[in-house]
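Researcher: I'd like a candidate sequence for this fold, 267 residues long. If you have to choose between options at a position, lean toward the conservative one.
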């Protein structure tokens, strides 16, 4: 027997729907008793973007089996939203903002490292490896690949909207509210290792002769031993980091939760 359920997506979850279906209830027919997670993903919305599910007004988990006539309301991550007694479908947010990026996001990885965030990135890594490492190391997966986000192993992730690395960095800052946690130039852009200040004498002959004369600050990556010094590109990197943070603070805030449009799911 064909059954029918009704779905309504809130706020930025509508980004994943075709324009004709945004911000309104849609009916879907189905057979059997599928898990609500699978039907939501069939509609194009990755489960990792969902923070709260209400079925007929009651909060439910991703494993909930649809029943004929169900009305499903699907809400995105609202860190500050008071949802009262309702239960969020995902585990509590990861406290340490640590990331793992898919193979297409090398430039974003460097920008996040520039801002001081732990951003794991391995060129050529398989999806399976990314999902397993994200789970094992409790990292937030960043990707634009919705297939990757469908994996059950992936619990904390963000689907980037922009294709431009600078915009993507602003998105991540805003989405995870990281502006006050940034620490520019504390991490190695090449390998993600932490930087530690070192004296000129520790650098030995690894510091080019022409550089030695003007260096006042010198840092070394604890992992790959690469040296960073305050030369011509140091101020440029710092101003790039400051520019990203300023953009994240001042907007455009179009990716931040728009509470005026969603009502209060707690009622
Ligand atoms: Zn390094």
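Model: Candidate sequence:
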């Amino acid at each position: 027997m064909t059954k029918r359920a009704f779905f309504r997506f809130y706020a930025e979850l509508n980004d994943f729907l075709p324009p004709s279906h945004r911000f309104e209830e849609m009916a879907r027919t189905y057979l059997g008793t599928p898990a609500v997670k699978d039907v939501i993903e069939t509609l194009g919305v990755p489960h990792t973007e969902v923070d709260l599910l209400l079925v007929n007004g009651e909060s439910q988990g991703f494993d909930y089996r649809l029943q004929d006539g169900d009305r499903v309301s699907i809400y995105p991550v609202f860190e500050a939203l008071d949802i009262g007694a309702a239960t969020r479908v995902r585990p509590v947010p990861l406290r340490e903002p640590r990331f793992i990026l898919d193979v297409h996001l090398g430039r974003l990885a460097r920008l996040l490292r520039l801002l001081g965030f732990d951003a794991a990135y391995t060129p050529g890594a398989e999806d399976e490896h990314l999902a397993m490492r994200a789970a094992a190391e409790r990292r937030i997966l960043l990707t634009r690949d919705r297939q990757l986000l469908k994996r059950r192993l992936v619990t904390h992730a963000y689907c980037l909207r922009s294709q431009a690395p600078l915009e993507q960095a602003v998105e991540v800052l805003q989405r995870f509210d990281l502006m006050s946690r940034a620490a520019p130039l504390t991490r190695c852009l090449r390998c993600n290792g932490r930087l530690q200040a070192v004296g000129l004498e520790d650098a030995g002959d690894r510091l080019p002769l022409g550089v030695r004369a003007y260096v006042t600050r010198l840092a070394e990556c604890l992992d790959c031993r690469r040296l960073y010094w305050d030369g011509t590109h140091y101020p440029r990197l710092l101003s790039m980091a400051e520019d990203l943070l300023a953009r994240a603070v001042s907007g455009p805030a179009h990716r931040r939760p728009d509470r005026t449009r969603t009502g209060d799911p707690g009622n």
